[in-house]
Design a protein that fits this description.
Ribosomal Protein S8, Chain: A, domain 1, 4-stranded antiparallel sheet, 247 residues, 44% strand, 6-stranded antiparallel sheet, elongated
């Protein structure tokens, strides 16, 4: 066995001791090659589960081959093997969006930009402050708040339409190789059909890497109002990593 193997057994504090397990009943040994999750981390998770459920099983992680070997009572090994099948899957990305209309110049007043930038990546605290600024603006108007749970490289589409506005958004998340962020491709098509004046259509696309728990802010369509002013549409997209629960 590789010298760097991580061995998780019941000798650790709080685990079932050898005197509490009938070692003669060990009838199963199986090795499981992992595809999407890391063997060492997975072994620690399985040991914790075995302790909680008092399963007579040893877990050996082999980092070189990224595999996990289970040895122990047949029922215990099969239970953990089933858990491995459930969790060894690509992580999903939850994207929670808020599409809101605010007066033109809002980005500058909120401290986001000097009028040139069209997108920003915010940390959680900054995102909360921006959300509060939007709520406190008496002229804001929420348009839609879609949520999408997407697998890696899976496209998701949100669209809504009424008499004066149509909003189309397509998202494609790509999890980065270090599994710490998502490269998010966002494509938008906004259409305004005012009671008076010409129909306005604006399409935009952006590819931006956003860390987990981060929020991408994207400035969309700018349009005129009947009183001679202007409004802008902002898209806020928060990113969360979703994995299968271990049971």
């Amino acid at each position: 066995m590789n010298l760097f193997a991580v061995v998780a057994a019941f000798a650790l504090p709080g685990m079932v001791s050898s005197t509490e397990v009938n070692w003669t009943n060990w009838t199963e040994t199986s090795t499981h090659k992992l595809t999407y999750i890391v063997a060492a981390d997975t072994a620690r998770t399985l040991v914790g589960l075995a302790v909680t459920k008092k399963l007579a099983v040893k877990v050996v992680a082999e980092p070189t081959s990224n595999s996990v070997t289970l040895s122990g009572e047949l029922s215990a090994c099969r239970h953990l093997a089933t858990v491995l099948q459930k969790i060894d899957k690509p992580a999903s990305t939850m994207v929670k969006m808020t599409v809101v209309e605010v007066p033109a110049g809002f980005a500058e007043e909120a401290g986001l930009a000097d009028g040139i930038e069209s997108s920003w990546v915010l940390e959680p605290r900054e995102a909360r402050m921006l959300a509060a600024s939007i709520r406190n603006d008496k002229n804001h108007r929420y348009l839609i708040r879609p949520e999408m749970l997407l697998n890696d490289n899976q496209e998701g589409i949100s669209q809504t339409e009424n008499d004066i506005r149509a909003i189309y958004i397509k998202l494609t998340p790509k999890i980065t190789s270090d599994d710490k962020a998502v490269t998010l491709r966002i494509e938008t098509n906004l259409k305004n059909t005012p009671a008076k004046g010409k129909c306005e259509i604006r399409s935009a696309a952006l590819t931006q890497t956003v860390p987990y728990t981060g929020t991408l802010v994207f400035r969309g369509m700018r349009s005129k109002t009947p009183d001679g002013g202007a409004v802008e549409v902002f898209i806020l997209a928060s990113i969360e990593r979703v994995t299968q629960p271990v049971k």
